[in-house]
Amino acid sequence: MDLATIQSKVCSLRGQKVRLDYDLAELYEVETRSLKQAVRRNIDRFPEDFMFEISEIEIANMVSQNVIPSKSYFGDSAPFAFTEQGVAMLSSILKSKKALQVNITIMRAFVMIRQYYLDSKAEREN
């Protein structure tokens, strides 16, 4: 799994770096519906700082910024956005070998993104 591909799917919402449920489902090789069902069955593991449902306004902003082609891209339900901690928590409810491998790679991508921003900030301050 390519770290650059994973990094390109990280977006900013509510001031946080997140991955969307449909991207994670694709990586985990499960249906988005199945991933969301697993999360709902274990909702107590996903406080607001781990996962949140995207609002209609946020969806409209994503369309206007060409992050997604149209509102209908998500179908009838709003997607879940997972923070780094939420992605890590997914490994506890999606117990396949694939889920474990994907989580490790995603965690590495989040760390690389964070380090890039820290390095960029340090360069600007010098």
From TrEMBL:
InterPro entries: KilA-N_DNA-bd_domain. It comes from the Bacteria. Pfam families: ORF6N. Residues 9-93 form the KilA-N DNA-binding domain. This is ORF6N domain-containing protein. The lineage of its organism: Bacteria, Pseudomonadati, Bacteroidota, Cytophagia, Cytophagales.
